[in-house]
Design a protein that fits this description.
Number of domains: 1
CATH superfamily: Ferritin, core subunit, four-helix bundle
Structural class: mainly alpha
Strand content: under 5%
Bound molecules: hydroxy diiron-OXO moiety
Number of strands: 0
Oligomer: single chain
Distance between the termini: 35 Å
C-alpha cells in the first residue's frame, strides 16, 4: 500500500519520464532534419529508454494497489542551434530528472516507505549513469571539435551504454 503522498509523487514522475521520452523524440527529429544520423539514432534510443522508465513507474504504482495516472504530455520545448547546445540541453534535463528522483527518495524516507525506497534505488543508479553518459558525449565533442561533427556523428552510438534489461 502506498501513502497518498508517495502515490502522488510517483504519478508526477510518470509525467516527467513521459515528457523526457517526448523531449528526446523531438530532439531526435531535429537531429534527423539536420542530417545527423548517429545523433538521431542515439536520441531515438533514449526515447525508448525513457518510455521504459515511465512504464516502470506505472506498473509499480499499480502493483502496490495505487492508481497510475496517464497524463496529457506537455509539448516538449527546446531551442538549440548546435550539437553542443543540444547535449547541454540533454544534460540539463537529466539533472532536473535526478533532482526529482532525489525528491522521491527524500519523501519515501520521511514516510518510512522502505519498499519504495529500495525500488527507487534502480533510478538513483540509472541517473548516475545517464548523467555520466551525457558528460562523456560532451567530452568527446570537445575532443573532436565542432569542425569534425562527421566523425562524432558516426561514432556516437558506440558511447551508448545499453539500459538495464536491454540486450547488450
Ligand atoms: Fe528517465 O532517465 Fe533520463 O530522464
Amino acid at each position: 500500500m502506498l501513502s497518498k503522498k508517495v502515490e502522488n509523487i510517483l504519478n508526477k514522475q510518470i509525467e516527467k519520464e513521459g515528457y523526457s521520452s517526448n523531449l528526446y523524440l523531438a530532439m531526435a527529429s531535429w537531429a534527423e532534419n539536420e542530417g545527423y544520423k548517429g545523433i538521431s539514432d542515439w536520441l531515438y534510443a533514449q526515447t525508448e529508454e525513457e518510455r521504459m522508465h515511465m512504464l516502470k513507474f506505472i506498473s509499480y504504482i499499480n502493483e502496490k494497489d495505487g492508481k497510475a495516472i496517464i497524463p496529457a504530455f506537455e509539448k516538449p520545448v527546446f531551442k538549440v542551434k548546435t550539437v553542443k547546445e543540444l547535449f547541454d540541453a540533454v544534460l540539463k534535463h537529466e539533472k532536473f530528472i535526478t533532482a526529482s528522483i532525489n525528491d522521491i527518495v527524500e519523501l519515501v524516507l520521511q514516510e518510512k516507505d522502505f519498499s519504495t525506497y529500495s525500488w527507487v534505488q534502480w533510478f538513483v543508479t540509472e541517473q548516475i549513469e545517464e548523467e555520466a553518459n551525457v558528460r562523456a558525449i560532451l567530452d568527446k565533442l570537445k575532443l573532436v571539435g565542432e569542425a569534425n561533427l562527421y566523425l562524432f556523428d558516426r561514432d556516437i552510438m558506440t558511447l551508448r551504454t545499453p539500459a538495464a534489461g536491454e540486450g547488450a
